[in-house]
Amino acid sequence: MTADPQAPPRSAPAAAEPASALLRVENLKMHFPIRRGVLQRQVGAVKAVDGVSFEVRKGETLGLVGESGCGKSTTGRAILQLYRPTAGRVFFEGEDLTALRGEDLRRKRRRMQMIFQDPYASLNPRQTVAEIVGEPLEVHGIASGKERDDQVQNLLRIVGLNPQYSKRFPHEFSGGQRQRIGIARALALSPSFIVCDEPISALDVSIQAQVVNLLEDLQKELGLTYLFIAHDLSMVRHISDRVAVMYLGHLMEMTERNELYHNPLHPYTQALLSAVPVPDPYVEERRQRIILTGDPPSPANPPKGCPFNTRCPLAIDICREQDPEWRAASPGHYVACHLV
User: Fold this and answer.
1) Each residue's pLDDT tens digit, 171-226
2) CATH says 9-93+192-335 is which class?
3) 3-state secondary structure of 82
4) Hey, which residues does 226 pair with through a beta bridge?
5) What is the full DSSP assignment across 7-37?
6) Are residues 212 and 218 in contact, defined by beta-carbon separation less than 8 angstroms?
7) How many angstroms separate the CA atoms of 91 and 277, rounded?
8) pLDDT confidence of 15, banded at 50, 70, 90?
9) DSSP secondary structure code for residue 211 in this structure
10) For the chain, how big is the Rg over CA atoms in Å?
11) To the nearest whole percent, how much of the chain has pLDDT over 70?
């Protein structure tokens, strides 16, 4: 795989495609037009995702972290073609999803699913659990009638819910139970890849661990591959094999989980990790806290040079003029920073 000579340095692929790569994203961009006036002419664009490249290996969990509004969820939706990307390519099981249309894309979507962030908004309140979980089976012509009901009850057992609850409505369940229903719906078509879009952020802390443990158990039993989107770095460390750090639509750093937490190279990653509480009071008292000043720039008007330069405490002149190259600082450890 070779990089497009016309593409900017940051958009270069994170690594050569390994044989076990299930998903490969190349220079993905998702720009939302800004329109004004009576004729609704485009006067700009919100660059929610601006040239990200990475791969997800079969059977692993890649954690995608960053502040709210940095483009994590948009990346997940663009990968699944819920948003049609502005530019870039997404290869899933060796096939370019951005080139698929109509029935071809519909058939491919059976192999990839999404668990949404808000279990209260992602379930239709007018449908029963049997209708919610069984709808994918009917839409794709896999099962209907009694066979569909049997499969729905089996899916509810898998996610730890009583199969007798299949005739109930979403409002009769707690938040954690609703998210289990969402997980059962995602599993209905036996996918190989699931985008988990902050699946625990709307749940109580006591329930979060249960849902994460369920996802881990399902991954082992069914051979699933996850893109786990979150802003809780401690939870990402628990579930992920590798972690990618995102800021203002760009990837800042990506490496193995333990390497990132023990040896963060990018100033933004260091600032994020310094905000994670440590349960040891002696360590907490001695460690240095990095406080970022100001707010993230608008993705409709990103700064020149490194996207992080307006808040970086270490920024120098080149950071304000030139976009840093996305490169390997060490084997498997990728970073976009002039100072590394």
Assistant:
1) 999 989 999 999 999 999 999 999 999 998 878 888 888 999 999 999 999 999 99
2) alpha beta
3) coil
4) 61, 194
5) S-GGGS-SSPPPTTEEEEEEEEEEEEEEEET
6) no
7) 38
8) very low
9) H
10) 21
11) 94
